[in-house]
């Protein structure tokens, strides 16, 4: 599922047909095009916090430039991120990062002088965030968060938590960046911002936006986004940003999602629920400690008896059992992301039949693991 990118499934005809016809017209112009304007206007309509848009190629670029924007806007240096949150592979966000980086102590090659400006706090702990912001109020430019922590397995925000994060950042003039690279166009058409009813100052997107083609977007408040050059002094550029192929794919994705909104989002959530409930039912008699977290079209299973609510609790789960689960599932033709610190995603192309096969495979795999 392209780590969450393929909401519509692989080879969605609307996306492939649009891209095929664009290929005949050209792929890269390196000047703004009408296509970019069209996509930006679509994003401003569907993303609740989006007033302006800048297109980039990847999620990493989107978060990197958002942090630079937040620094320029607040004239402060430091970045607060959450333990287990992953925002791409650049220097200011690699501290205690999730996803593939979760298995490294800390990436080599990151300058101490860069890392020293990143403050890490635990997710789902609003008191810890408040204390940090109070202590370093003069130096914190932004808080960057995955609204749903999807890169440490899957940890959901507890009741009121995101509201608290919004409140404390607002009160202290700290820019709140929702990294919606996973949740964007997946949790709801308007992403986590729409799902939780909270407006960050900046929201970044990638993955699902491109339907399998490389594209990212920085969206947010006009007063912040207009600091980007050429209207402002924050530099961002890339040869391939806004290339006609990726933008065409993204327009086709968004058009499909807007058109099918009332069937796509309920269907992918229903398929996910069937799998999660099916796994629980199929294994209710097993003597095996595990929990499954899920939201919308996302789920993950952890071998632990404790509630998984942050990086610390996710890391207590048995990695060895997860490895076995992965192998047993693959033998049964169910291919989940090969790490405990990733999330499983459902697409619109998955049928109830696929859900049943998945439940059977999990059931058999878990029974085998419970035996040893
Ligand atoms: C939440 C989040 N932000 C940013 C990124 C980086 O995106 P990209 O791999 O497109 O650079 C990822 C990638 O997995 C992600 O999950």
Note down, in words, how this protein is organized:
- 41% of the residues lie in helices and 12% in strands.
- The chain is α/β, with parallel strands linked by helices and 372 residues long.
- It has a seven-stranded mixed β-sheet with strand order 1-7-6-5-4-2-3, sandwiched between helices. The protein has a three-stranded antiparallel β-sheet with strand order 8-9-10, covered by helices on one side.
- α7 links the parallel β5 (175-179) and β6.
- α1 packs antiparallel against α9.
- The longest helix has 39 residues, at 244-282.
- The chain is globular and about 65 Å long.
- The two termini are 31 Å apart.
- 51% of the residues are buried.
- Pyridoxal-5'-phosphate (PLP) binds at residues 3, 58-60, 63, 86-88, 99, 146, 151, 179, 181-182, 206.
Measured between the Cα atoms of the first and last residue, the distance is 31 Å
Count of β-strands: 10
Q: What is the structural class?
A: alpha/beta
Strand residues, percent: 5-15%
Q: Tell me the overall shape.
A: globular
Helix content: 40-55%
State the major sheet: 7 strands, mixed
| Helix-strand topology string | HHEHEHEHEHEHEEHHEEHHEH
Q: Detail the poorly predicted runs.
A: none
Question: Radius of gyration, Cα only, in angstroms?
Answer: 20 Å
Hetero compounds: pyridoxal-5'-phosphate
Mean pLDDT: 96
Strand arrangement in the largest pleated sheet: 1-7-6-5-4-2-3
Give the number of helices.
Answer: 12
